[in-house]
Amino acid sequence: MLRSLVTGISSSPAPEWAANRLLVATCISNTQQRGRRRTLTPVPWLPPINEPAHSNSVPLNDTTKKLLEKVIEREGTRFGEELDNSKAAITDIGESTRRVGLVVRKIGMLPQWTTNGTRILCTVLEVVENNVVSVTSPEDWYKMSAIGKRKAFNRNGPMWKVTVGSINDDPTKYSVGYRRQFNRAGIPIKQKLGCFLVTEDALPQTGQSLDARHFVVGQYITATGKTIDWGFQGGMHRWGMRGQPTRRTTKSHRRIGSVGSVGDARIWPGKRMPGHMGYEWVTVSGLEVIRINNDKQVIYVKGSVPGDIGETILLKDCVQEEKKLKKGPLPTWIPSLETISEESEEEAAAEGTIPKELLHNETFSPKIFRFTSPSIVFTDADAKRAAGRDKTKAKIAKVKK
């Protein structure tokens, strides 16, 4: 209703009653409801993302589909060479600098071992076709968004809003309004979007491709995502309640019991009761990057991050004072900042001990054990001791003649 009203006002001269009606509708839509913990449906005043399926639409034939696929493939590879990457470098990062983050996909969890044999559990995150969709200045963000009025100018100074898209998708599934932002940036249609607060000295260019090497091995990051969706759960599972006694109790073993029959005889807001559990935004800070696979665009993070397998996670630099990144690529990593591959993998592949298809261009933390290196290392002192007499055997007395 609001969308049709805005369209009618923009296409014809607006009378006084239309402006008043628009103001009232906007105020009613933005009213906050008390007690709401999550919003599972998009707000009604935003344009639809997916193209609605019409019952009277004519399906495309095979020839038209092939032609459309060729056009989509060419449109996806037309951008990227005209960017000015002369300012990108691996340099010191200031205390107030805020870099852009990555939109990654959670693959699962795998164990890693340190050089002393300690087993640590890591989360594997995949960076899938990340590109910068738009860069919004603090002045424009302050004018056009209620969130911008709170975050565009904060205690850290002016902040730019940088939108990052991930996972290329078929553009025919999305509406015209959703595709327009990608057409302006000259990049393929993205399935997932994420926004980050960035300072002026670390602004990337629109359409810039983001790599897994945007982060450095050994640094600490912050992961934000939605927790596992458990659906409707009872009080014991949702809040960890003990439950009622198992003896002399009928039909109330897992019930929460009395909720408000004493005193004011009412349910106070925030009462812990059965309901929807999970699927809420949670941020975990101080996670260490211990391994990066550059070929597969995979990041190994020590610990666990919120979300189920396949969920979208937002990664950014940690802002804690003792865990801030001191030196790294600014504003982001580009192919001209190539690093020299380590010699141990090349030697192992040349000797034939490890197949080449099992070796990738990876970066490891110094404390992580690598299976391409030997488990036992013999030094010169060990060789000298081995050359001496074997003390495990008994002495044989020599007979004098």
Task: Set out the fold topology.
Elements: H1 2-11, H2 16-29, H3 62-76, E1 89-92, E2 102-113, E3 119-127, E4 130-136, H4 138-144, H5 148-151, E5 153-154, E6 157-158, E7 160-168, H6 176-185, E8 190-198, E9 209-210, E10 220-226, E11 231-233, H7 235-239, E12 275-277, E13 281-293, E14 298-302, E15 312-317, E16 327-330, H8 343-351, E17 362-364, H9 380-387
Antiparallel strand pairs: 1-16, 2-3, 2-15, 3-14, 4-7, 4-9, 5-6, 7-8, 10-13, 10-15, 11-12, 13-14, 13-17
Helix pairs in contact: 1-2
Protein name: Large ribosomal subunit protein uL3m
Keywords: Ribonucleoprotein, Ribosomal protein
Pfam family, one: Ribosomal_L3
Describe, in plain words, how this protein is organized in 3D.
The structure is a single chain. With 401 residues, this protein is an alpha+beta fold. It has a domain at 91-228 and 277-364: Elongation Factor Tu (Ef-tu), domain 3. Helix content is 20%, strand content 25%. It contains 9 helices and 17 strands. The protein has helices spanning 2-11, 16-29, 62-76, 138-144, 148-151, 176-185, 235-239, 343-351, 380-387, and strands spanning 89-92, 102-113, 119-127, 130-136, 153-154, 157-158, 160-168, 190-198, 209-210, 220-226, 231-233, 275-277, 281-293, 298-302, 312-317, 327-330, 362-364. The strands form 5 sheets. It has a 6-stranded antiparallel β-barrel with strand order 2-3-14-13-10-15. The chain has a 4-stranded antiparallel β-sheet with strand order 8-7-4-9. Strands 1-16 form a two-stranded antiparallel ribbon. Strand 13 (281-293) and strand 14 (298-302) form a beta hairpin. Helix 1 packs antiparallel against helix 2. The longest helix is centred in the first third of the chain and has 15 residues, at 62-76. It is extended and about 110 Å long. Keywords: Ribonucleoprotein, Ribosomal protein. This is Large ribosomal subunit protein uL3m. InterPro entries: Ribosomal_uL3 (IPR000597), Ribosomal_uL3_bac/org-type (IPR019927), Transl_B-barrel_sf (IPR009000). It comes from Caenorhabditis angaria. Belongs to the universal ribosomal protein uL3 family.
